[in-house]
């Protein structure tokens, strides 16, 4: 049985795991990232955690998932708010130099998408587009089991697709950007504007809608339409076999998915209305997807 090592490096925690070729997490370790102590400190922590895994030395390779766009060729983070001081550092090469094993790195949404494409809801499909709707909106494109990152590491991202240029620009994105109109953060913001501080998160808005509140239903309908615009624009460029949906907002899928899907079918070409939609299946797509990076890159060489 072949095994791989996955590394999930975030601003708060770093987690490493030994994963088999079927996506089973055999063993994992986690500690606080302590990114404020600098790159060398964090790299040594990752090395120590990997070396604490049983039989780590027999792993075929190492994959790393990190926040923000990644130069996958150079193994460097392009830019990240969660790991200050880490942009431009050859993190993958540092790990590879120590363990003498092929090491690859990609952004956290991409590796989660890879996990779903190879072992989850997209398994067996040629073109898989994974989208997570949560605090923000992130996307990842996988073709024949390989993540398509693009020259600048931004391929697959749909957060800045404009759904209405007459709306307000926020958070460094374009006016009317999808993330600012249909993410969990956006739903919470709009809910507070309607209902005040009784809204703590997007789930509160969905609950009001489920209870029949007309204003909440109108808001959910508006968000569903905006989301459908983003998906339809993406579909017309990518024409995927399947969209795989993940993220916290999907916990309320029974409230909005049918509205969203109907709008999507109105907005795409008639011949594309049969594009499949599925919900993410893996419990831990991030760490499993990171571990699958070496397998994907080695297979596609």
UniProtKB/TrEMBL annotation:
Family classification: Belongs to the ROK (NagC/XylR) family.
Keywords: Transferase
Any GO molecular function: glucokinase activity
Protein name in the entry: Glucokinase
Domain of life (superkingdom): Bacteria
SUPFAM superfamilies associated with the record: Actin-like ATPase domain
InterPro entries on file: ATPase_NBD, ROK
Pfam families, A to Z: ROK
EC number(s) per entry: 2.7.1.2
Lineage: Bacteria, Bacillati, Bacillota, Erysipelotrichia, Erysipelotrichales
């Amino acid at each position: 049985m072949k095994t791989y090592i996955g590394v999930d490096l975030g601003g708060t925690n770093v987690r490493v795991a030994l994963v088999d070729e079927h996506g089973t997490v055999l063993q994992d370790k986690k500690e606080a990232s302590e990114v404020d102590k600098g790159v060398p400190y964090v790299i040594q922590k990752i090395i120590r955690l990997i070396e604490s895994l049983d039989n780590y030395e027999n792993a075929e390779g190492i994959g790393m998932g990190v926040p923000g766009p990644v130069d996958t060729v150079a193994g460097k983070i392009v830019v990240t708010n969660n790991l200050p001081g880490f942009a431009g550092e050859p993190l993958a090469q540092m790990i590879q130099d120590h363990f003498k094993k092929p090491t690859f790195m990609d952004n956290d949404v991409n590796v989660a998408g890879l996990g779903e494409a190879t072992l989850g809801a997209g398994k067996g499909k040629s073109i898989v587009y994974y989208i997570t709707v949560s605090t923000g909106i992130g996307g990842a494109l996988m073709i024949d089991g390989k993540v398509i990152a693009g020259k600048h590491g931004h391929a697959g991202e749909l957060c800045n697709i404009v759904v209405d240029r007459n709306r307000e620009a926020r958070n460094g994105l374009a006016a009317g950007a999808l993330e600012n109109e249909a993410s969990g953060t956006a739903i919470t913001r709009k809910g507070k504007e309607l209902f005040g501080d009784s809204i703590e998160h997007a789930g509160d808005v969905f609950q009001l809608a489920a209870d029949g509140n007309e204003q909440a239903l109108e808001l959910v309908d508006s968000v569903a339409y905006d989301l459908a615009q983003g998906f339809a624009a993406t579909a017309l460029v990518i024409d995927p076999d399947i969209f795989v949906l993940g993220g916290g907002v999907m916990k309320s899928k029974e409230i909005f998915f049918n509205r969203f899907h109907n709008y999507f079918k109105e907005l795409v070409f008639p011949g594309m209305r049969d594009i499949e939609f599925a919900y993410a299946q893996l419990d831990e797509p991030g760490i499993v997807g990171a571990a699958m990076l070496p397998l994907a890159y080695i297979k596609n060489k």
